[in-house]
Design brief:
- This protein has 198 residues and is mostly beta strands.
- It has 2 domains: 24-137, Immunoglobulin-like, CATH 2.60.40; 160-192, no CATH class.
- The protein is built from 2 helices and 12 strands.
- The protein has helices spanning 2-21, 144-147, and strands spanning 28-29, 34-37, 43-49, 66-71, 77-87, 93-101, 109-113, 125-135, 163-168, 171-176, 181-185, 188-192.
- The strands form 4 sheets. A 4-stranded antiparallel beta sheet has the order 1-8-5-6, with no helix packed on it.
Length: 198
């Protein structure tokens, strides 16, 4: 029983921690902008309703609207998508539609529609949620030379750090690549150098 209660307490604590870290996209009146957040809980995009007539019903839902989406960050987005959600006067969800923008520069706005929307009420509030905020993969603040990683030579061209031993008449003499070794052969000193093949 103690284990079950401990596991339940951990699950509740984890859920509360996750809820505290996730920003809640606030609902806005229809005549105000709605803001969506990025993964770091920072405001990323704003949206303004361009369609003014939003009187939907169960029998004749509003099927599409226009929204102006604005990038409010200094980051260039190559793809932005998300949901526009509408709520009636009782705070019940009564319609949602998906939007997408293929490229959005910093402080740039784009008009988009919401295909798939089925607005079944006269909404009082709305919000947006960003699903995808894809950025460029290069850092435009650095020069192009700093962005390319150094090219490493192929494995065959790298200097190997292998130690070799030469055995002459039962005696071992350590030798390394490009490191000379001097041996006394007879009455003369001989210099031996082990080199990689060109």
């Amino acid at each position: 029983m103690k284990r079950i209660s401990l596991v339940l307490m951990l699950i509740v604590a984890g859920a509360l921690t996750a809820a505290a870290q996730t920003p809640s996209e606030q609902r806005s009146p229809l005549n105000q902008t709605a803001t969506a957040f990025d993964a770091k809980s920072a405001p990323a995009i704003e949206a303004t309703l361009l369609t003014q007539v939003l009187n939907g019903s169960e029998d004749s839902p509003v099927m599409n609207i226009k929204v102006a989406v604005k990038n409010i960050t200094p980051i260039f987005y190559t793809y932005v998508s998300g949901w526009v959600t509408f709520y009636d006067a009782n705070n019940a969800r009564c319609g949602e539609g998906l939007f997408k923008v293929d490229a959005l520069a910093p402080q740039e706005s784009a008009e988009v529609d919401t295909p798939g929307l089925r607005l079944r009420c006269s909404p009082a509030t709305w919000r947006i949620v960003a699903n995808n905020l894809l950025t460029r993969t290069v850092d435009i603040a650095k020069p192009a030379e700093a962005q390319t990683p150094p090219i490493e030579p192929p494995v065959s061209e790298r200097a190997a750090t292998v130690n070799y031993v030469i055995n002459i008449d039962g005696h071992d003499y350590p030798i390394q690549v490009n490191n000379p070794m001097v041996l006394k052969l007879g009455n003369k000193n001989r210099k031996i150098v082990l080199k990689p093949m060109p």
